[in-house]
Design brief:
globular, mainly beta, 4-stranded antiparallel sheet
Length: 428
């Protein structure tokens, strides 16, 4: 896995400006531009996204760090850096409206609490999960604006449920980086920060309002991303700064039996997502903290595609790789995989690439005005909602959504490639 795949047939551009600090490390200047003319960009990025609606979440300098949409894409939830959650209804004209349940604020404590994620619990737009960095996941009923339940680690955790093995473990409550709920809304899993060599996955029963058990042997550093399979409620993938992606079948009796696949990315994992290729095979996309992009088969961990930040910059038709910001990966109904990427210098550039052996230009977002940190995608309409560091929640739609070629012309051959199986050793 140490070798790099060839780029998209282009020479990877060097930064348009750089200097060396006292340590000799090259640092990029905040200078960047396109590698081709505006006319060429028009021809490459044929799909144009325009702002349908936009809302500023605060008069303060609050970031939008997390976004979630219900299954019908009728309600959007934004988690802010100020530990406040804003709820938006999407009306028939595809415009954002702050609903009657405008905000949900986490209770104030002496410790600074951040939001590590937002999720809708089920197919309805009424049950909202909000994860807090202090180790608590709260369940809100948006019809009443009240907290219905909370899930937090027991100080004395006894693993007595057969689904997670038997072992007595005395632990103190840990901070969490991420969480997710499974497809039937019955299980919540949280991923903790590493503390004194201890890091784990904590499982909760939503109906019983209690902790089920713990996986504590599969990662060695902060767990940064968790995603249950979009259909199978027993399949979970986890990613960590230790460089590993693990796939679990949580219906198995022990953690060892539950661990079905381990993938060594050789990078610190930032964000994971599930996808399905044209052969109905499950694949996992990975965005790293160094803005690289990997795709793996979930069953055995074989690599599908691997692109570093320089290659992504070239595909986006930009010059300075140090300004490249990879946002997220999304799937379309026809099995295509989209990569949303932008720039860090003022964030004015936001573009979409499609995986097809290489990364191919697809769409340009006209009028973006912030560094984007989160996005959600509606498969049915092709609409995109983004949030970022200027505090805007932006609803994007294509100029010609009814065209036959659509947002993503169907071409998923990039998910057919199989290379050598990845090693299972920790990269550090």
């Amino acid at each position: 896995m140490k070798g790099k795949l060839s780029s998209q047939g282009e020479v990877c551009p060097s930064p348009s400006g750089s200097y060396h600090d006292e340590s000799g490390v090259s640092t990029a200047l905040i200078v960047d531009e396109d590698t081709c003319s505006r006319e060429e960009l028009e021809g490459l990025f044929k799909v144009k996204f325009r702002i349908e609606d936009e809302s500023a979440v605060s008069l303060n300098r609050d970031y939008v760090l997390n976004l979630a949409a219900d299954s019908g894409f009728t309600r959007i939830v934004a988690g802010l850096s100020s530990a406040v959650v804003h709820i938006f209804d999407v009306n028939a004209e595809r415009a954002l409206q702050i609903s009657s349940v405008a905000t949900v604020s986490t209770p104030r404590t002496n410790d600074r609490v951040g939001i590590c994620g937002v999720r809708f619990l089920d197919d309805t737009p009424n049950c909202l999960l909000v994860g807090e960095s202090n180790g608590i996941v709260r369940l809100y009923d948006l019809r009443t604006q009240r907290e219905q339940a909370r899930f937090e680690e027991n100080i004395e955790c006894t693993q007595s449920f057969s689904s997670f093995g038997r072992r007595n473990l005395r632990i103190s409550r840990k901070a969490i980086n991420c969480f997710d709920s499974n497809s039937n809304g019955r299980i919540i899993c949280t991923g903790t920060q590493q503390r004194q060599g201890d890091v784990c996955l904590l499982f909760y029963d939503v109906r019983q309002r209690q902790q089920l058990g713990t996986y504590f042997e599969s990662h060695e550093d902060d767990i940064t991303s968790l995603h249950f399979h979009y259909k199978n409620p027993d399949i979970l993938c986890s990613g960590s700064t230790d460089g590993l992606i693990n796939v679990f079948d949580i219906k198995e009796a022990t953690e060892d039996d539950a661990l079905t696949t381990t993938i060594n990315t050789e990078c610190s994992v930032q964000k994971l997502n599930w996808h399905k290729n044209i052969y109905e095979q499950d694949v996992i996309s990975c965005i790293t903290h160094t803005n690289d992009f990997h795709v793996y088969f979930a069953d055995e961990g074989d690599i599908v595609s691997k692109f570093d930040r320089c290659q992504i910059t070239a595909a986006t038709k930009r010059k300075n790789e140090f300004n490249c910001n990879v946002v997220d990966a999304h799937s379309t109904e026809n099995g295509d995989l989209l990569l949303l990427t932008g720039t860090t210098n003022n964030g004015e550039v936001l573009r979409t690439l499609r995986l097809n052996k290489n990364l191919l230009p697809v769409a340009d977002f006209i009028g973006n005005k912030q560094l984007v940190r989160a996005s959600v995608f509606d498969k049915k309409s092709g609409a995109v909602v983004t949030g970022g560091e200027s505090g805007f929640v932006t609803f994007w739609a294509t100029e010609n959504p009814g065209k036959e070629d659509g947002v993503l012309p169907s071409c998923s051959s990039g998910l057919k490639i199989k290379n050598k199986k990845s090693k299972k050793n920790t990269p550090y």
